[in-house]
Structure formats: structure tokens, C-alpha cells
Amino acid sequence: MKKVVLIVFLLALAVTGVFAQNYTVVVDIRRELHAYIDAIPQETLYALRPLLMMLAESSHNNDELHDLLDAIPERNIDAVKLLLQALVDPSYNSAAGIYLPQRTAEAAGPSSAARAGAPVSTDAGVSKGPLSIGGGAFYDWSLKNSVEEVASQSGYDLMSFGAFAFFDAKYVELSVGPSFGIANSEKKIESGSNSKNYKLFQLDLSVLGKIPINLADGKFIFFPMLGASFNAVLFGISGTEGKTVSELNQIGLLGGVGFDYNITSSVYLRSEGLFHFRFPVWELMDSMKEPGSKVNFGMGPRIRLGIGYRF
């Protein structure tokens, strides 16, 4: 049973990453191209119109070009991106084979000159790249995690709080961090029940796929999240005398939403609200395959607050 759960855990990690990447790639490319259109000087917008009309079958203002862009077949997206880069930045002109008249700063005026010379942001409001690191604190609470057998029931509840560090690659978040856990283990049999309380030092590992959605021109970023976790008990602080603490390890699934507030182009605040769905602790895994056994998976919230730095 432990092998089956490990295989499910690994598959969940793989599917999460692939799904998040494939689901957002086309939308993200179109958002990037919208940003290129907004940065094109007015005098050179005319050069884009014929190509968009040819590929999408009609205009010379940004809103109309956005509409035309969204109608272009996927097979032509890369070609349009190259042209937009050439229109925005003269350094791309030779690569694209395009020769456009360039305005001087005096002729263009201060506002247009600033637009023409500004770096193009592929995420509205955020000029940095997709990689970031950070850290913060979290709280996790899991209830009603038990296995019912024919003549007994073994349950395990866990409350944890601690710190975490994360690495974010735009569509995937990896995190690791130590935590202090307070657990209650109870075994009920026909003649009564036996309860134990543990205080544990743990290490939490998690990976989550996410789909970032820019709000308010990139000032805020909202993202649904889905992934998996592994809670490793490193040692018992109290109550675990004579027990192998690795038997209290747990694998879980995570789902919920996150929210970033961009303080600057580099620094942001992050909050996450997740629902944690836990498999039984390691020592109860073998009981899951017993005839007549019933599993009650642990459920509860995970809340994380942190700060990040974008490269």
C-alpha cells in the first residue's frame, strides 16, 4: 500500500506541472503580444495592420489590433511575435528583415519617447522575470484521519505551524520548511480506547502547480493552485518514547488559491489558502488493505503568508 501511495504522489507531481504549463502557454503568449502592441509607437502601428488583416481577415488602433491578434491561428503566433518585437525594439529589425522609420525623441514627444524606449513587460505591471524566491510562515490543521478495521479504529489528528522557504517558477511553486506539530493518536477497541499525545519536529515538502492571472495591470496576481505534500517527522520532542517517528510521516494533496500583491517590480507579498487532504500516517498504511477496513482521510486548512523577491 505504501508503494501505491508513493506512485500516486509522484504521478500527482508530474500531472500538476504538465497541466499548469500546457494550460497557460497560449494565453500567456497572447498576453505578451498585447503588451508588445501597447508599446509600439503610433507612427509604426500601420506596419502591423496588413499582416494582421492577412492572417485574421480589418485596423490601426490598439483595441482593434488586440481583437485581430486573438483571431490569428496558433500556427502563426510565433511569426506575429517576431514582427511585434521588431516594431517595438529596433534591435530586432535586422533579425526580422524589417526596416522601419525611427522617430527621434524630439519628434515623438516625451510621452511617446518614453514608451518607445521603455523595456517591454511580458506581465503587465511586472518588469522582472518569472523566477522568484521567498519565505514566510504557515499554519496547518488536519482532522479525522483514521482507519477503521473490523474490531478497532485508529485515528490521528495533527496541528502544525512553522516557517517555509519557496522557489517559484511562475507555473510551479516548490517549498520546504520546518514546523512544530502537536498530534493526538487514538486507538479504539471494544474494551475501551488508548490515546497518546505527541509533540513533533517536522519537515514539510510541497510542490504546487498554479495558473497566474494578472489583475489591476499586474499590481495583483491571483492563482488557483493544485499539488501534493510530504510531511516528514524528524524527531519527537515528547510522547514518542519507544516509537519510530518515521511511522508518523504523511503524504497529502493540496488545492486552493493564492494571491500576490506586488509592492515593487521585484518585491511582493504572498498569501495562500489551501485545503489539505491527507492520507493516513505511515504506520496505518498497511491497515488500509485489510478486508473490511474503511479509511477516513484527514482534512483541514493550510494557510501561508510570506514575502518574495522576483529576479
Question: What order do the helices and strands come in, and which of them pair?
Answer:
Layout: H1 2-39, H2 49-56, H3 62-70, H4 77-88, H5 93-96, H6 105-108, H7 110-117, E1 132-148, E2 152-168, E3 172-189, E4 192-210, E5 213-215, E6 220-238, E7 250-262, E8 267-278, E9 294-296, E10 298-310
Antiparallel strand pairs: 1-2, 1-9, 1-10, 2-3, 3-4, 4-6, 5-6, 6-7, 7-8, 8-10
Strand order of the largest sheet: 1-2-3-4-6-7-8-10
Q: What proportion of the residues form beta strands (DSSP E)?
A: 35-45%
CATH architecture of the largest domain: Beta Barrel
Rg calc: 27 Å
CATH class category of the largest domain: Mainly Beta
Described by strand count, sense and barrel closure, the largest sheet is:
8 strands, antiparallel, barrel
How many helical elements? 7
Helical residue percent?
Answer: 25-40%
Overall number of domains: 2
Q: Count the beta strands.
A: 10
Shape by Cα distribution:
elongated
Distance between the termini: 42 Å
Q: Secondary-structure element order, as H and E?
A: HHHHHHHEEEEEEEEEE
Q: Mean of the pLDDT scores?
A: 78
List low-confidence stretches. Answer: 94-127
Structural class: alpha+beta
CATH fold descriptor of the largest domain: Porin
